[in-house]
Please model this.
Amino acid sequence: MSAEQTTAIVLRTIEFSETSLVVTLLTRDLGRVSALAKGARRPKGPFEGALDLLAVCRVVVLRKSTDTLDLLTEAKLHRRFRGGERSLQRLYGGYYIAEMLRLLTDDHDPHPDVYDLTIHTLEQIDGSGEVAPSLLWFDAQLLKRLGHAPGTDRCTDCGNSIPPARRIAFSLTAGGVVCDKCRAKQRQIISVRTTVIDEIKRLQSGDTRLPTQVTQDLYGEVRAVLNRYIQTVVGRVPRMQAFLPETSS
Ligand SMILES: [Zn+2]
Model:
């Protein structure tokens, strides 16, 4: 067993016993961690409210070598997520981020860039940033950093360049745009405006930072393509997708 110190974002807490919680954390240095927090449900317990959903805290984790849960021995609150006190949209936006991280990251597989991306997005959701474009940017950047970026340049199947057209075929199974020749082989195809693909490309580029805007004309279609693509990647419909903003502002 070794004690490791890192910063963490609380992704979920589950009651484990009368006094304890099992917490899922996204840590900066250890990746996603599930740990037992003994005494966390006691009124004056050792964690003093540091384990609320989306709270950012400094933690000490005792790593277990076997398959059993790690042990959380310390959590010192840095920042609480308060967006939910101001609007339902900010609250649901926060829940959505937590769900995406639970679904897409793996235990003990550190991605400090994903941790930093999440902190940056939460600052917008918790502050005065627009929720809808912030979440689109978060999804595009998260998928890219975890190696799931949808293909937006060449045909995802044969690799050939795709001649310019107003609409383009997007294959959910191939994970990106496909040319006319490969289109027939695909099972799950959606026809998308080329401007929508260009917008996804912009959102996943390293040059785009928050705050960013997405026009109302593109928002619904970009959101729909990413939603269906994410469903294919994770193998189910994320629960919070139904609560995502319907308009871009
Ligand atoms: Zn092709």
Q: What stands out?
A: The pocket of zinc ion is lined by residues 155, 157-158, 160, 178-179, 181-182 (CB under 6 Å). Residues 22 and 44 are 18 Å apart (CA to CA). The chain has a mean pLDDT of 95.
